[in-house]
């Protein structure tokens, strides 16, 4: 019996992958030529402004001069004692705390209704609720300034129904302007969150529903004890996505309320815009410092989103 030794596997050389990449670039160079305008546009209008804002935040610069005076972290120190900045920061947090749960919860109820076999014309209603998503936020803001006016149909309808005694301009009232913006924002983006929930509901096996029904569970018990626990990973992901979205409301709030009246609906984005461009004396450096702090808040939420998504994937992978 002859025993033959098998040859050892070939050792991959580290430099072998480099010629392959170079050959790939030579053969597909035209792809990168078509991508070049996108790279240039992204660099000019996203990367450069992002990096420049960090430098501008260290300057005392109104934007008119060719260059500003370097003042270090004085803009950030001033922000910490600026009541208007903290007012805008608080309004943004209040917007987020109210709008995100409302959007997530209402979208879930809507998805459950549309996912039911008893719902007539589900495709029609899905399209109907999704239409505001593809409409520009600025256009929606302008339209709702007319709808929410004291002489608009919403105010007059509430008076006719006896809910309010006198017509109210909801966007021009300091007590209702922010909440009007929250309601419009939730209405606009409800459709996309509904689609997320519909996709999540499709992952729940049908035999799980059937087993719950055989055990005597009614629709409410089945939802709380069977469906909802299976949707918890999706709940984390959808909530974090909507949280990031709730920080980007400039177009809607600027056209709807403009941050007024008396700064009652001024979120951070409108504060930055007003400080940089709409003030009597523009303060581009100071506005950049506010934008940097706002960006850091967004980064923190994005990191939380990444952690939440990783946890959710582990939960879905483990079958819990």
UniProtKB/TrEMBL annotation:
The chain crosses the membrane at residues 29-57, 93-115, 127-148, 178-201, 222-241, 284-307. It is a multi-pass membrane protein. It is found in: Cell membrane. The keyword ATP-binding does not apply. Residues 89-305 form the ABC transmembrane type-1 domain. Keywords: Cell membrane, Membrane, Sugar transport, Transmembrane, Transmembrane helix, Transport. The keyword Cell membrane applies. InterPro entries: MetI-like, MetI-like_sf, UgpAE/MalFG_permease. Pfam families: BPD_transp_1. Gene3D superfamilies: MetI-like. Belongs to the binding-protein-dependent transport system permease family. This is Multiple sugar transport system permease protein. It comes from Microbacterium murale.
